[in-house]
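A reminder from the course coordinator: this example appears on the midterm review sheet, so study it carefully.

Given structure:
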């Protein structure tokens, strides 16, 4: 009889339970202390029981896993060694926390008796992610709390800290693999039926970009029954949304004319100040978002719902609908006359030209704002973004994780988001993703915010880098090019996406873009 060491036994038990729960992918970063888990996953992968994605950088690996979760709807484990490797998971864990993403964090650790003894690569990993995870366990033996951990994944990330003692290498037995029986499980939050009664004929439905985790189909069904004007932070998923709302609502006069009796908010709206100002002006607000039960527990509204409720309300008046359409059409005419090569026209063109059936990842900062403001509502595109904390970190990796589950994907990033996650380009998988990098040599978003013009602005906010993203991509062995016209941009969408490539859209100065936006806002004030 072969005696299996405790570390191997624990690792195999966890891998078996993960596969039997229907999980199909795992992201692993190399290390010594996580060898028992890595080798167990590798053995399972050779049988076709799970797919391994390897990333040398734990931060990019964790964001890649987030992309997988977004595109597949299934939990994804991430595996790392002890020490600083664990801390590099933290940004993605925070993003998962604020989007209820099912990220299963498996961190290898030394035995507890070596903590605080000066042992190499040993730090306090217990509860290192604090309240950002739904469940935590510090495991030092063959008893695995996987059932509770997997159940907790329904509402967000879970952390299992695994104490692996030496020896770390397994025996040659593969019998344990024969006992694995995958039984796919739907990792969905448990639903409750709730009712929302309203007596408002002049209401607005505001849909945040991540839709609070709800499907486009579920929200569309709710919106049709509600029959209110729709403001969608993601206009490419809701063709009935009011076009350019975030632009024309910058006018105080228009906001006043469109003050609603009630607003229903699905998810969060943290980017558009004009839309937030409209929401604030409404006498009554209702929020639909599962996160109010976990991370957004202090949100205020007349009523809070963790699920999409059954609606009971009066129909919107025709006059109310026509009023919104009038301002939308006026703004559309203004935008159509705004041509040339700029960040606004690039966003408008991407939204219009991207082929049906494609996936689109939109980076935080200016790209997501520009798509919201300048895109014409349409359908046929599956959109994604990191909207939990709206950070620019991990954007390349998240986009690649998404692309691994789609035939073709486009990702729109700012230059700083590209540089921030450039190590995400280090990968060897068969992925079809074209990155469109808007390069204005620095932090363009700040030129559109109140910080513009303060002393030292260019040094601490503008942060010009003077680098060529296309040359950087080429150094990674990735096909790259630079474009400077709308015609060149259109050509990108005329052929299928094959492999990973980078297209750098070099635009005018950040200050000029801010002036262009200001001219549009000023024009809306004169309508």
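Designed residues:
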């Amino acid at each position: 009889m072969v005696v299996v060491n405790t570390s191997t036994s624990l690792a195999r038990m966890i891998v078996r339970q993960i596969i039997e729960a229907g999980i199909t992918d795992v992201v692993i970063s190399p290390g010594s202390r996580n060898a028992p888990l890595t080798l167990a996953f590798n053995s399972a992968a050779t049988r076709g029981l799970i797919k391994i994605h390897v990333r040398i950088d734990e931060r990019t690996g964790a964001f890649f896993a987030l992309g997988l979760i977004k595109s597949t709807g299934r939990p994804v484990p991430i595996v790392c060694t002890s020490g600083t490797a664990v801390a590099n998971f933290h940004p993605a864990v925070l993003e998962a926390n604020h989007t209820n993403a099912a990220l299963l964090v498996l961190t290898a650790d030394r035995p507890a008796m070596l903590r605080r003894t000066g042992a190499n690569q040993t730090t306090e990993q217990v509860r290192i992610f604090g309240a950002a995870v739904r469940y935590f366990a510090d495991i030092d033996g063959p008893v695995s709390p996987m059932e509770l951990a997997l159940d907790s994944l329904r509402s967000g990330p879970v952390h299992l800290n695994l104490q692996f003692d030496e020896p770390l290498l397994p025996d040659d037995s593969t019998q344990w693999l024969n006992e694995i029986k995958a039984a796919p499980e739907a990792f969905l939050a448990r639903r409750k039926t709730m009712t929302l009664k309203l007596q408002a004929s002049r209401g607005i439905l505001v849909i945040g970009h991540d839709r609070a985790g709800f499907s486009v189909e579920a929200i569309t069904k709710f919106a049709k029954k509600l029959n209110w004007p729709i403001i969608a932070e993601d206009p490419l998923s809701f063709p009935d949304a009011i076009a350019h709302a975030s632009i024309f609502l910058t006018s105080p006069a228009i906001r006043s004319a469109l003050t609603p009796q009630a607003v229903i908010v699905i998810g969060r709206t943290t980017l558009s100040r004009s839309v937030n100002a409209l929401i604030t002006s409404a006498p009554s607000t209702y929020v639909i978002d599962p996160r109010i039960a976990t991370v957004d527990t202090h949100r205020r509204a007349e009523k809070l719902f963790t699920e999409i409720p059954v609606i009971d309300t009066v129909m919107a008046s025709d006059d109310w609908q026509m009023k919104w359409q009038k301002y939308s059409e006026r703004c559309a005419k203004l935008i159509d006359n705004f041509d040339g090569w700029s960040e606004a026209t690039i966003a408008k063109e991407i939204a219009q030209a991207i082929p049906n059936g494609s996936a689109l990842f939109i980076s935080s900062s200016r790209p997501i704002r520009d798509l919201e403001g300048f895109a014409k509502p349409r359908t046929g595109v599956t959109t994604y973004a990191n909207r939990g904390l709206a950070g620019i970190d991990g954007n390349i990796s998240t986009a690649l994780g998404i692309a691994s589950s789609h035939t073709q994907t486009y990702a729109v990033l700012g230059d700083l988001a590209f540089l921030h996650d450039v190590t995400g380009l280090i990968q060897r998988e068969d992925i079809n993703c074209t990155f469109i990098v808007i390069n204005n040599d620095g932090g363009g978003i700040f030129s559109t915010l109140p910080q513009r013009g303060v002393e030292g602005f260019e040094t601490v906010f503008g942060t010009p880098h003077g680098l060529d993203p296309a040359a950087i991509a080429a150094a990674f062995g990735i096909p790259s090019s630079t474009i400077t016209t709308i015609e060149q941009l259109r050509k990108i969408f005329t052929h299928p996406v094959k492999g990973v490539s980078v297209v750098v859209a070099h635009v005018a100065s950040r200050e000029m873009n801010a002036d262009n936006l200001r001219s549009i806002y000023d024009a809306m004030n004169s309508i």
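The first strand starts at residue 25 and ends at 28. The chain has a mean pLDDT of 92.
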